[in-house]
Specification:
heterodimer; A: 577 residues; MetI-like fold; B: 334 residues; alpha/beta
């Protein structure tokens, strides 16, 4: 059999989808099963004795939990709506208008991904705290105000900073959907005399609904589970959310061990919510052809002329960049140069030093951690992107495994989003301690497996949202011309999906680079990552060194983001050609 | 007669010391052929490297490898998971009383004859654990915002309404739970309620709290001695002092069952119990052993009334902490 026919068999026959299903069951179902078992164990440890419902009784019988849930709902919904609006507008401006410097804008919008959210929040404390915030001091000095005009320690402050952190994810999901929209539909709308609000309501939102729903589902769950921003901005003033409870149960629970049973019982809420979202998504995208925008008919994406609104659009992109990157990054650089945490002042300017940067560069552990982060993030991103493509292809483009099998595959790929990182870490520790013939416990390889699992949800949603826009007639045309399925994927589907996949790849790289909770839990002798090193400095009372690591992390990620941008630019050429 | 008894006691002590030195040498020799001693502990590895280097100056043949586990709960869970799945875990486990005690209750710790290793009795409340260091509560203040004379010296002064909206502390009410050991749970709870009325800012750990005091975000804080040191040493405008009653958490070390290098673990812990070892650990991590009087920590709290629950009362402390934490969370915030 020739290699070509081998590839053909690989893609056509059922064993690939079956293998895929088995792999996802291995990656997702095992941690999920351990999570469920833990929720029924009195100690929360799956191999301990006993079986009870007490964890559910404690969690759901506590009135305080519902107060937390209310706060969390406000926070999660607030972030979701704000990030969707801001990310959506930015994606539209960059992809569908004649905004100048679009390549630079793409990098500017994606860059905040790399800032660890707790550093972003810390930066905003130094900018907008009522007592020491630099913006407040400037405003009070300039206008003689008696009271600070800004207070970052509020629900609004939390939503604002989390929105800044989430916008790049929304942008990456929506930008490709915007690019792939056939301008004929807008033109038809305009010909019929439709105004912009009607076009947004009747054309944009329906066509973008798979991507919008994917982004909304992602944001909502992240809003429920994220701790960095609520921990830094909410906790000091008593604004607690469910993730505060999860972190408390993992690290501070009295009695000597993490309360995994209670965490697992809480996580069940997220699983139910996520299943509901997955069901809605499947229902919405059932008639996939409703969302097809890329067909065999060539088109050049229509770019709206902004005209007099161009300066406003540029100002909007710049404002986001200033708020999400420049201001906090400036503070990060400032902090990396101060001997201890201090807000901006002339007094401190005299004490600035490069000693923290020198200390970071002379620490061999930082070099080792940087190398581990680099290869773990790139390998994880590559594997998870490949896996996401295969899952999306199998679910949307094949009849393998039957409808229920494909549904299972789709839901499995979505599930990890609802499992707290600490629970995935715990499950992997058990798995690889037990499977001693797979000697990856305590090594960086266990991190690769963890990250492929954790980030599968985002990548699959991104790949699916883009693939759903490609009309099957493209594949059919290729096959009619004698292309094998492998060739069709390589020559037709991959180039068309490349921007989305490259976006997902860079997103995973950035998130692995900054990911902390799983990396800390799976920490062994030689798998310390840069984020762990950064946290180590932070938690060890050396915020200036942590900031120095953060600054260099941003530098590295800027380079990677520029490379990604170049890849996206190539996609423009493909379309234009 | 008394002189004779003292002479006999001194001779016995000297003989015991000699015997333990001899036995440590033998243990160290046996440990050299074993795998490195694995040490599970929560300090950054940059800090523990210095401790291990100091240890290796005395025992160059005994290798120690540090694995950082971010907190006591993670340490306990990791130990349980490893014991359940493969039958052994880190050789030396360093954590709080509640963490080491529950590992002891599960039967995962080795009973050790500490006296034979020359470890003072005061450090070993049980054959399973040995006091290595402590987290000692202090009051810290920003010297630009609070005059030294104005800074509290007693808990009563800390609870003065003048600190309303000016205070910060750890998000856990652990200082008050430890105060309950000497004040009684009711008094400590009343104090906690008065503290909550001050609307303190709460921080995930005492390290960011100390930084917040240094930056002027809060004027006054209740933190730990060791977490106040980094910004102080970096020149931040911070001072600290021990109050009239000093709550603290002793940090214990233990040797796990089925340790791969049990001999090395014994030598290492025996060394940590010496003045040399305790000072090396304190210099590196800021955490000193309050039970060894040459440490800075012991000097810092000298003459103060200490308040801490015994390890065997960990369950009682746990229940109290749960209640107090809820009180603090419910009333916190500006």
């Amino acid at each position: 059999m020739s290699p070509r026919s081998l590839r053909s068999v690989f893609l056509q026959r059922a064993w690939l989808p079956l293998g895929l299903l088995a792999l996802l069951l291995y990656l997702v179902a095992v941690p999920l099963a351990l999570l469920l078992v833990s929720s029924f164990k009195p100690t929360g440890l799956p191999f301990d004795e006993g079986f009870s419902l007490q964890n559910f009784a404690i969690v759901y019988g506590d009135a305080g939990f519902y107060a937390l849930l209310r706060n969390t709902l406000t926070f999660a919904l607030g972030c979701t709506v704000c990030a969707l609006v801001v990310g959506g507008v930015l994606a539209w401006l960059v992809e569908r208008t004649d905004l100048p410097f679009r390549a630079t804008a793409r990098v500017m919008i994606a860059l905040p991904m790399v800032l660890p959210p707790f550093l972003l929040a810390m930066g905003w404390v130094l900018l907008a705290s009522p007592r020491t915030g630099w913006f407040n001091q400037l405003a009070q000095d300039a206008f003689g105000l008696a009271q600070a005009p800004l207070n970052i320690y509020t629900m609004g402050g939390m939503i604002f900073v989390e929105t800044l952190a989430l916008v790049p994810s929304v942008y990456l999901i929506l930008s490709n959907a915007f690019r792939n929209m056939d301008p004929a539909l807008e033109e038809a709308g305009m010909t019929c005399g439709a105004r912009w609000p009607a076009m947004v309501r009747r054309i944009f939102i329906p066509l973008l609904s798979p991507a919008l729903l994917a982004a909304a589902a992602y944001l909502l769950i992240v809003g429920f589970l994220v701790f960095d921003v609520p921990g830094t901005l909410g906790m000091p003033v008593g604004l607690f959310v469910v993730s505060s409870r999860i972190v408390y149960l993992a690290t501070d629970q009295s009695g000597g061990t993490s309360a995994y049973g209670l965490i697992a019982a809480i996580a069940v809420t997220f699983l139910v919510l996520l299943l509901a979202l997955a069901w809605s998504y499947r229902r919405l995208t059932r008639q996939a052809n409703r969302f097809v925008t890329v067909t065999g008919k060539g088109f050049r994406p229509r770019q709206l002329r902004l005209g007099a609104m161009k300066p406003v659009a540029v100002a909007l992109v710049l404002l986001y960049f200033v708020l999400a990157v420049l201001a906090p990054l400036g503070l990060l650089i400032w902090t990396s140069l101060t001997p201890y945490l201090a807000s901006i002042s002339w007094d401190m300017a005299g004490k600035l030093t490069l000693a923290q940067h020198a200390a970071v560069f002379s620490n061999p552990r930082v070099g080792a951690a940087a190398w581990t982060s680099m290869w773990v993030s790139m390998l994880s991103a590559t594997l998870v992107t490949l896996l996401a493509l295969l899952v999306a292809w199998t679910v949307l483009r094949t009849r393998a495994l039957g409808q229920s099998g494909r549904n299972l595959l789709d839901v499995l790929s979505f599930m990890p989003l609802a499992i707290p990182g600490t629970m995935i870490g715990m499950a992997l520790i058990y798995m690889y301690l037990t499977l001693s013939f797979v000697p990856i416990y305590g090594t960086a390889w266990i991190l690769v497996i963890a990250y492929v699992t954790v980030y599968l949800s985002f990548s699959t949603r991104t790949a699916s949202a883009s693939l759903i826009q490609l009309h099957p007639e493209l594949d059919e045309a290729a096959r009619t011309c004698g292309a094998t399925p492998a060739m069709t994927v390589r020559r037709i589907v991959l180039p068309l999906l490349m921007p989305a996949l490259a976006g997902a790849w860079i997103w995973v790289v950035a998130h692995v680079m900054r990911e902390l909770s799983t990396a800390l839990l799976l920490q062994g002798d030689d798998n310390v990552t840069l984020a762990v090193q950064l946290w180590s400095y932070w938690a060890g009372g050396e915020p200036s060194k942590a900031a120095a690591v953060g600054v260099w992390l941003v530098v590295v990620m800027t380079v990677i983001t520029i490379i990604w941008q170049r890849l996206s630019a190539r996609r423009d050429v493909v379309f234009s050609g | 007669m008394i002189k004779k008894l003292l002479a006999a006691a001194f001779a016995f002590g000297a003989a015991l010391g000699q015997a333990s030195a001899q036995s440590l040498t033998e243990l160290a020799k046996a440990a050299e052929s074993k795998p490195p001693v694995t040490w599970y502990e929560s300090s950054p590895s940059e800090q523990t490297d210095k401790v291990i280097n100091a240890f290796n100056r005395k025992y160059p043949g005994v290798k120690v490898r540090h694995t950082r586990l971010i907190g006591g709960n993670e340490l306990a869970v990791r130990a349980v998971q490893e014991m359940q799945a493969r039958g052994y875990t880190g050789d030396v486990l360093t954590g709080g009383a509640d963490h080491t005690w529950q590992l002891k209750e599960r039967g995962y710790l080795e009973s050790v004859n500490w006296a034979s290793l020359g470890v003072p009795k005061t450090l070993t409340p049980s054959p399973y654990i040995m006091a290595t260091a402590a987290s000692v509560y202090v009051v810290l203040w920003n010297t630009n915002k609070v005059k030294d004379a104005e800074a509290p010296t007693t808990w009563e002064e800390v609870l003065s309404p003048k600190w309303t909206n000016r205070m910060g502390s750890w998000v856990r009410a652990a200082a008050f739970s430890q105060l309950a050991a000497t004040q009684g749970p009711d008094t400590a709870l009343k104090q906690l309620n008065r503290y909550v009325a001050l609307k303190p800012m709460l921080f995930k750990s005492t390290f960011p709290l100390a930084q917040a005091v240094g930056s002027g975000e809060v004027d006054l804080g209740i933190g730990f001695y060791h977490s106040t040191l980094p910004p102080m040493n970096a020149g931040a405008p911070i001072k600290m002092r021990a109050l009239d009653i000093v709550p603290m958490h002793i940090i214990y070390s233990a040797i796990s069952k089925n340790a791969r290098n049990a001999q090395g673990a014994r030598v290492f812990l025996a060394w940590l119990a010496t003045e040399e070892g305790a000072l090396a650990y304190e210099d590196a991590t800021g955490r000193g052993n309050p039970l060894l009087e040459k440490t800075k920590t012991a000097q810092f709290i000298k003459g103060k009334k200490l308040s801490e629950w015994a390890p065997e009362k960990s369950d009682e402390l746990g229940a109290l902490s749960e209640h107090y934490n809820k009180v603090l969370e419910a009333g916190a915030g500006r």
